[in-house]
Amino acid sequence: MTDRRILRLSGRDTTDFLQGIVTNDVRKLEQGLVYAALLTPQGKYIADFFLVPDGADVLLDVAEPLGDALAQRLALYKLRADVEIVDSGLHLHRGLGDAPPDAFADPRHPALGWRAYRETPQDAQDVDWTALRVEHLVPETGIELTPDTFILEAGFDRLSGVDFRKGCYVGQEVTARMRHKTELRKGLVRVRIEGPAGPGTEIMADGKAAGRLLSRAGEHAIAYLRFDRAGSEMLAGEAKVEMEAQPV
């Protein structure tokens, strides 16, 4: 997704309000962008977003399709807190290479470049963001990240999207328990594909459902797999699927 909604949160309670509900430590805003998520009490994904320092305010950069619902949920959570939530009217600009003075590094991975927030829309860019995401196993809102997602299965710890020392937030108990498991049984992996197979195609291993193909770029893709069923001979339709070494 490229369309983004940029909300503005202001008021003296903004930092404390966000600190109590999102997966990351909001105090990191002193260092730049903070990537985080809002979860259900059961630990499942509601939305992922970037928090952006903007003077005394905090901008919230979220995928446009989630913007209205997220703003409504935040309004419900704030109760009597001194927090105002409005549309900022700003536009996201993204790029690679040297960052301009008003930009912030994307905290998920250095290869994803920089993000800036400006009053005018960005001109079209010749950047294959999907290929970059697939190469570095970075999930996307609405594709890899859905209401069924547990964020550790999506690699949020690797993507600087969760802080295990910050204290309580909505869904924290489930997330902490998953972290302390011996190993995850399901999750996102990068795979190589030989043959035609589009996003959403079921992946089979030894005649059993092993997962699903998600974002694809050329011969590589992100897949959600059951690790106990994933093997050396997997198929997505007629296409051969092979797990690759995972980014660190």
What is the distance, rounded to the nearest whole angstrom, between the alpha carbons of the first and last residues? 24 Å
> Count the strands?
14
Cross-sheet strand order for the largest sheet: 9-12-11-10-13-14
List the helices and strands in order: EHEEEHEEEEHHEEEEEE
Radius of gyration: 19 Å
**CATH homology group of the largest domain:** Probable tRNA modification gtpase trme, domain 1
| Tally of contiguous helical segments | 4
Q: Name the CATH architecture of the largest domain.
A: 2-Layer Sandwich
Give the total of domains.
2
Average pLDDT, rounded to a whole number, is: 94
Spans of 5+ residues with little confidence (pLDDT < 50)?
none
What percent strand?
25-35%
CATH top level label of the largest domain: Alpha Beta
CATH T-level fold name of the largest domain: Gyrase A, domain 2
Shape: globular
Biggest β-sheet description: 6 strands, antiparallel, barrel
Helix content: 10-25%
**What structural class do the secondary elements suggest?**
alpha+beta
